[in-house]
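Technical appendix A lists one of the benchmark inputs used to test multi-chain prediction within the project. The record comprises two sequence entries:
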Amino acid sequence: MEFSSLTEALASKSYEKIPDICDNLLLQAAAEGVAYEDDWPYAIHLLGHIYVDDINSARFLWKSIPSAIKETQLELVAVWKIGQKLWTRDYGGVHEAIRGFDWSQEVQCLVAGFSELYTKRMFQLLLSAYSTISIQDAALFLGMNEDDATNYVLQQGWVVDPASRMLTVKKQAIVTEQKLDASKLQRLTEYVFHLEH
Amino acid sequence: MGSLEGLVIQIQGLSSSAGDISRLHVTLKQAEESLRSESTRLYPILNQLDPSNHSLGYLYILDACTSASISKEQAATLVPYIARFISLCVPEQIRLAPEKFMSVCKRFKDQVVLLGTPIRGVAPLMAAVRKLQNSSEHLTTLHPEFLLLCLLAKFYKIGLSILEEDIFVVDQPRDLFLYCYYGGMICIGQKRFRKALELLHNVVTAPMSTINAIAVEAYKKYILVSLIHHGQFSTSLPKYTSSVAQRNLKNFCQPYIELANSYSTGKIAELEVYVQTNGEKFESDNNLGLVNQVVSSMYKRNIQRLTQTYLTLSLQDIANTVQLNSPKEAEMHVLQMIQDGEIFATINQKDGMVRFLEDPEQYKSCEMIERIDSSIQRIMALSRKLTTMEEQTSCDPLYLGKAGRERQRFDFDDFDTVPQKFNI
């Protein structure tokens, strides 16, 4: 089995490409009738789906893995635990699952990449969903201890009230370029032409 | 057998130019009967032929091999040959005998299912679809077979890539029914409920002269997905639905319609009781998982209803109104809805309050313009296609024959303008 495209993606940290690469390689191996199950990098494949937040595909992949492999590969089971926590939306549990296993070298970088991405996603969620939140809950969502969490959000412009242990959320104003170019005029001309005929 | 060797030599010799291949085709058609009677002795011949250069000949041999019923062991031998053939065959040659290609692929699908390894067929059937179709707008008989394998192998994402393509040409009506039904199931599996509704809607409203089982099953899922995605369901079908469907579909789906009625009351306890008592019916239709999703969507629906009445509400009040156990549970539900974009709100933990907000989309951004632009382009392309179809239909003799019969016998212009009587 040719895994060069997969190793390349891992080396260049293009983790979002991993689920499609793995899916295609697996389907090719299955079509050729190769007995791929024993050597297949299921942990990386599963983490790929988790990385792009496609928990549905992760669930189906998990269901298709032979139970013998599920029983012997402990790292795979640990990866699935992360997926389960995401599925049940146990926001804090995801961090626990990430930290609760001694990852092997191949998987280590991918897990670290996901952990960073997930923390950023959680921060964005807190930003959009809360006007005030307790330091305790913020720490749970961000997977940090309370002091680290407080420092993290203070750097983003939030305000802390140490007496009540409450954080006030402050959104940074995002300015996006709104540029229009000549091709829009061309398109409008086409629409008017179409409507008149 | 002498003639078999002769045939092999002909296939090898006559496969290089288009003229040669048409002569070969005639020879192969004549040899069909004798090939089928020799089906067990044909396996070694496959090794003498090249699936790419001799695609047409290889296809006829494969068709003969698979025409008789096959044991599991024979299937295990044949499957790799067919898989390899599909990936290497040349579209120009196999399109000379499309029905044969479809038969071979269908039997291939049956064999991988028989062997219990549907995943082996996913990649080959996807390649087969691409080689058989005249364009990406063409729906072939192999499309639903491919989707079925995706469902059985639980590889949904790859099925979605085919479903994204717009279909304008269909070979057989049955293909469309099955394609949209399986496609709906794949979208449900990936939680793409809007697209699932579209596909199931197509099955239910497709022209049909008698009610068929696919439409009935599709309608059941249509009701459930409607409840999950829109929070409501109406039994009235659009005007273009066949009269057969309008009259009969409801009768086959009574438990589901009653579920929808119970859902509309907003009382989750009643809904759960109904599901409990009728669980067996939903289970035997393989819809129990979907029904459970309908029940959980009730909380979301009830919270969404609150946004129409309140500007702010306490977490405790939300918990009480929606029948959740605690303000913390209410907070988690609201948080998940915010994450999924189903509600715009901010939670204020200090006061234990939720403030409901307006949709912040101003429809003024460049991204929104891009989206509207691409929708307009699609509709313009569709409009052009419809105009072309209308022109073609207006010239079609079958249509003119039928429309002609219904016209008046004389046009107004046929009558003379000369007055009836002269006054001399």
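The longest strand of chain B covers residues 345-348. The CA atoms of residues 84 and 247 of chain B lie 48 Å apart. Comparable benchmark entries are summarised in Table A2.
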